[in-house]
Amino acid sequence: MPSSTFNSENSPHAERPGFVRLTASDRPGVAQPVPERDIPSKPWGPILIGATVMFVVMLIAWELYWRDYGVTPSYRNSNGSWADQRRRINSGEGDKTVLVGSSRILFDVQLPVWQKTTGERPIQLALEGTSGVVLLEDLADDPDFTGRLVVGVAPDLFFSGFAYRAEAISYYHKQGPSQRSGHWISKTLFEPYVAFYDPDFALATVVRRQNWPLRAGMTKDTRVRKLLVQDADRNSHMWRKVEVDPEYRALARSIWAENFVGPPPPMMDTPAKLQKLVEKQIARAEVAVKKLRTRGVKIVFVRPPSAGEYYAFEQKVFPRAATWDVLLKRTNVPGIHFEDHPEMRNYELPEWSHLSAADANRFTAALVPLVEHEFAAQEKP
After folding, report:
1. Which of 58, 109, 131, 192 stands 20 to 30 A from 67 (CA)?
2. For residue 98, what is the enclosing H or E element?
3. 7 Ramachandran zone, left/alpha/beta (phi>0; psi -120 to 50)
4. Could you read off the pLDDT of 209-259 as tens digits, one per residue?
């Protein structure tokens, strides 16, 4: 119905000059038809071209900005990427060597070096910020997995049960066709070519991490910044900027240090609560190990290096005698601790928690013979 039919003579609502969309207030007591909107006559072609050009220019500028910052294209450490590797176990590779744990196993173990040493390229399933216990449990419940398992132990994660990326496990088990196709498009068309496509450089993330003032009662909780570069099969190494840029390295350290001060979380704010929490994680690992061993799975725990204030924090809150030693005794699984092997010490850890890219290669070359020795010992009657 044209707007001109509504005027001061036949409607209690006077016509509003320039107002072309009819609303409910314009038709009191009348059934509401689909609103009508006049489309003005404009040069839509040139407008579309101008908007497209502006979009492309801004996109290129954003890409160049991050490339100048030191970012290069790499594969995203996404749930879809993890699911691709997890799926290999259920697609005929269940007898392979699998790596689980948190970011130290992800950063520090280099798959090409392992493959060169043993002839086998392991499946990398470690998840940053995530206890290896949840990954142990997932594989323990999967009858297709009958291979060898290397479990990374970062004390503050493994013995607290913290699982920042645990949703990747449920994502894999529930992943649908649209999610799989979306991930394929992402890793095929964008990730190898576009630097800013990394989630750390999304505009919303950049805005969120600005130095906004804290409200009363809030404490600083900075999100972990980009630390790694990843290949298609999740082989990962430290981003070079962490190694060569003192300011960025100091930022990474300061983010870890936020966890070293202030009151502990409620579930571990007393010695009794902490002990109970540690006991719970060891008990979970014990149950998972028993399930795995019934299928003949060989297991070894690995404690990668840490340094500086991070190592001091771990020694204070999760001392070896109360955590690592108890874990090995209760599970009866062999363990490789960096403190016990000279070839696993004296590496560069730029931000205290992960090895530099070059030292990760050297560390892997030193670790593999130790792991193979422990696996071979488990084959003896």
Report:
1. 109
2. strand 97-100
3. beta
4. 888 887 887 777 788 999 999 999 999 999 999 999 999 999 999 999 998
